[in-house]
UniProtKB/TrEMBL annotation:
InterPro entries: Topo_IA, Topo_IA_2, Topo_IA_AS, Topo_IA_cen, Topo_IA_cen_sub1, Topo_IA_cen_sub2, Topo_IA_cen_sub3, Topo_IA_core_domain. CDD domains: TOP1Ac (cd00186), TOPRIM_TopoIA_TopoIII (cd03362). It comes from the Bacteria. This is DNA topoisomerase. NCBIfam families: PRK07726.1, topB. GO terms for molecular function: DNA topoisomerase type I (single strand cut, ATP-independent) activity. It catalyses: ATP-independent breakage of single-stranded DNA, followed by passage and rejoining. Residues 157-594 form the Topo IA-type catalytic domain. PANTHER family: DNA TOPOISOMERASE 3-ALPHA, PROKARYOTIC DNA TOPOISOMERASE. It is an enzyme of class 5 (isomerase). The keyword Manganese does not apply. Keywords: DNA-binding, Isomerase, Magnesium, Metal-binding, Topoisomerase.
Amino acid sequence: MKPVIVAEKPSQAKAYAEAFKTTKRDGYIEVAPDAIFPEGAYITWGIGHLVELKEPKAYDPKWGKWSLAALPILPDTYQFQVARGKAQQFGIIKKLIFQTDTVINACDVDREGSNIFYSIYYQTGAKNKKIQRLWINSLEADEVRKGFQELRDNRQDLLLYQEAKARQISDWLVGMNGSRLYSLLLQEKGIREVFAIGRVQTPTVFLIYQREKEIEAFVPEPFYEIEGMFDAEKGRYKGKAKLRAKERKEAEELLAKYAIAAKEDGIVAQVKTTEKRTPPPQLHSLSTLQAAANRKWKYSPAKVLSVMQGLYEKKLVSYPRTDTQHVTPGEFSYLAGQVEKYQQLIEAPFPIASKTPKKRFVDSSKVQEHYAIIPTKTIPTARKLAGLAKDERNLYEEVLRTTLAMFHKDYRYAETKVTTDVKGLAFFTTGKTELEKGWRELFPVAKEAKQEPSLPELREQERVKSKIDIKESMTLPPKPYTEGQLIAMMKTCGKFVEDVEDTEILKEIEGLGTEATRSGIIETIKRHEYISVTKNIVSITDKGRILCQSIEGNLLSSPSMTAKWETYLKKIGKGEGSSEVFLATIGKFIQKLLDEVPAQMQKNGLPDKMATPDAKDEIAVCPRCKKGMIVSRRGSYNCTEYDNGCKQSFPATFLKKRLTAKQIEYLCTRGKTPVIKGFISKNGKKFNAKLVLEDGKLKMEF
């Protein structure tokens, strides 16, 4: 009998079919008999999640309406249904499966792929079929054929399915109960919004909220340093004394102690040069690629995953949903054999430093389900490369250049530390001189990138002229997250947890979500309007603030809860845990929410003004009319007496720099801000300045 191969989606089925001689049919592809399939085979496909959990009202009519009295929603058993609009394709799969005795799971090689396959298989009602698993990291024809020759049994696959199904049901339970609970309680306070609650998304929003609160609560403080500008025989350089004082007086007293005036002679007391090396970067996992792409091109994590999935299906890169940065000796071997061809692709020839595997890149113990993202054996033609969209080309080259760097030399530079003596007070300078570009030549630096100033040639005991000055600076608030940094924040959220045990758990499971789901979680909280992203900067919305104030002090706000759940879910995937035990724990958690949240929300005390969508926090008394308050409204800061004639306003963004409520408060109360970094002029140059309020208008002070 012909085996039935179930792919996750049509594009994946098409890629498998290209490894065989086939005939296209309605909803499936027929594989002609060959050495691997002597009787031939059928390849069919899902359309993502063909099968889904039923809605609450399917279990009990009382759950059809949102009511606090109807909670909790805890079915005795969980029922699934074919997703709306997908019945035709499901019927084709079901018919094929009933005609065979062997079914091959060829969905994506991860937990979600296992879940999609078994959800479909069990929904068909089929029994006593032999099930095998295709497990490959590349869609190239030879890798596909090799994978079908080396099919795995389904023991591990079944465990991954149990883990994924338990995760799916727990997310459904938390979402259905938590969303109704918080939405209904907030409606009682006059806030007519639906607040979606999620096992992973909610603590993620709370971490963003915490960062924004830190920024808003930050009060800039001045600090003082003593800086020297030195003129030597072969050039000028700068140095600093070892002092960072909160009061200017401390710096003045130190200069007085050494009787140092504004202009003095100095001596180069020591010049110490050390050669240093930076090895090539590690290969990319999905999260490191998402971070790099966001930094270089402002791509969102979701866009990176989407583009990489496309490149995978075009057989140009290996499986993208990977959390490792290593390959096995097998992958290294084919990469080493094709280095010269990869070099030609990007016209970047360089002498190969070594084709010997290094543990930094090649380590089988670090490769579990998938290896790092690397180019496949397929070398695209010039025409195929030219046919890639710009974002595809950018990401393909990033993967290619990072892989080639593995065969390049280290980046070498000389670090020079200079001590300059001015009347007994030491000034310190560190400079860097590039000796060999090495792997860095593979990554062209943008022209506007900040270059480190180079030191002039100096010799010990050389006399220099110096200009000594006390420099005033301001402490800077934490920076808001970029969209790319959210991925890293989710991975490393253990550092936000006080409990040592929880921190270790979060470190072990790599934080919130998984490599494959984090970008989707970010898209979800954007869709629910908890965060907004403007020019790559992430901000919490008013709706997000209300949610976070509501859950503050609750386990839903803490990554620890998700950490403990993820730890147990992984045990299920290893056969060491039980879905029944896990879901019973979730049930207890939901009951705890129902018991405690109403009183907790009362204790948190949401301000009444948050009940109206247009109300904003008052920042300061209006400096013009002295009656109204300056408040934040969409796109600007305005006076509440606007309708009575006061036209005082401040832009939310000035010269491409987002102004914070704290900076507006400084303008209103003191007439000027501390130094603000990062303004961008009309010609694109960055600069720093203070903002000054004169006659109701903003001016700059340098």
